[in-house]
Structure formats: structure tokens, C-alpha cells
Amino acid sequence: KPDFRVFPSPAAIADAVAAYLAERLTAQPATRLGLATGNTFVPIYARLVARYRAGGFSFVRAASFNLDEYVGLPAGHPASFRAYMQAHLFDHVDLPAGKGALPGVEGDIEAACQAYEAAIGSEGGIDLQMLGIGRNGHIGFNEPGSPFDSRTRQVDLAPSTREANKGDFPAGEVVPPTAVTMGIGTILEAREIVLVAIGAAKAEALDRAFRQEASPDCPASALQSHGRVTIFCDSEAAGAL
Ligand code: GLP
What PROSITE patterns has UniProt attached to this entry (predicted)? Predict the structure, then answer.
């Protein structure tokens, strides 16, 4: 049974998730993190950076692997997850260069995805995987229909996902049609998973993920088979639960 923690506001969630990460890095500085992007994580990283600046823990022995990245964006593109991670976390903490990895999106993408899986394995696997959730129940960029045993790979984005993420792109730019993402199988191998969901727009996805029978129609429902999942959400997202 997933552990649901319901908070009164987005700010309270951000505080709680940042505290959770800071406590983990304090107790286990060599934690292998799986990190997520999206609007949900912006205030979480801001509070994590504030805690880091206040002292008491470090990222110097940690490593992180990001879930996903768009294919086809030039380096430094403001909507790329690389730029997001730099701006919101990596530029502000002592995570060693090269220890904050994203799946490769240039050259032979299939080979890069396999190398990414191998890199996760050579770090001993992911200890704590952070996840947001898409309105359609996607995790990472595993859209509905993704097999529960899928691995890191290139995927087509759902039209609704491209629409939902349009606001992250400069006006007039199109959201790339494809991305690379850790697979659902990759995600399920993490020792622990924390999923964060805020707002009424996520209520249906949470309901389908955790209250209904698991099905590839709702990728997040794969998490029902994982023994250690904690969900941080507000009462709006928890609505249907
Ligand atoms: C994006 C990301 C997901 C993220 C989700 C929700 O497309 N690929 O990893 O969890 O959509 O994003 P937001 O937090 O902005 O709602």
C-alpha cells in the first residue's frame, strides 16, 4: 500500500519533500538519486537549495540520474531538462560535475539509452527516485501504453503532453515530438520512490494510478507493484482518493 501524505498547500509539500531529501542526504550522503523536472519540482528544489545553504549536508558523495529529456533541443535551450536542472539545482549545490546525468539525446540515441542504463547499474542502482505525474498518468515521459517492463528509450510524446508543456517553451516554438525517458521497468528498480502531485488537474491521474486496477493505460499505476512508494500531495490532488 502506498503511503499517502496529504498537505494543506503546495508550499507545505515543497517544504516536506525538500526536508525528506535533505534528511536522506544527511543520513546517507552517497545516495543515488533519480531526479524529476516539471513545475511541481521548482519550489522543491528551491527549498532544497535553501536547506543546503543553511548547511548540514552535502551532495559531494551523491549522484543523480534524471528521468527524461526532450530530443532535438539545442544545448542550453531554456525548456531542456538539462537547463532546468542547472538552473534549479546543479548550479547551486556541490554535486560533482558529471554526477548529475540525463539520458543522451544526440547521435545514436539507442546506444546512449543503453549506456544510461549501464551507468545507473554501475552506480549500484537508484536509491531514491523522485517522480511527478502527468495529467494522463505518465511518469517520466512514459505515456499511456508504455509497457511496465520498458527500459530507457526514445518515445513519442502524447499530443496532450505536448499541449500541457507548451508553456515551458518560448512563444511560437513547437514542443519536440519525441523524448528519451527511463522506462517504467527502470523506474520500478529504484529501491524507494517518492511521487509528488499538486492540484486538481492531477486528481484523476492519482485516482487511476492508485485506486484502480493497474493498467498500462495509466503508467503510474505500475507503482502499485512497488513495495516502497510515498506520495506527497495536496488535498486537491488527493480529491478522488
Ligand atoms: C512532464 C515530465 C514529467 C512530469 C510531468 C508533470 O512532462 N516529463 O516527469 O512529472 O510532466 O509536470 P508538472 O509538474 O509540470 O505538472
Answer: GLC_GALNAC_ISOMERASE
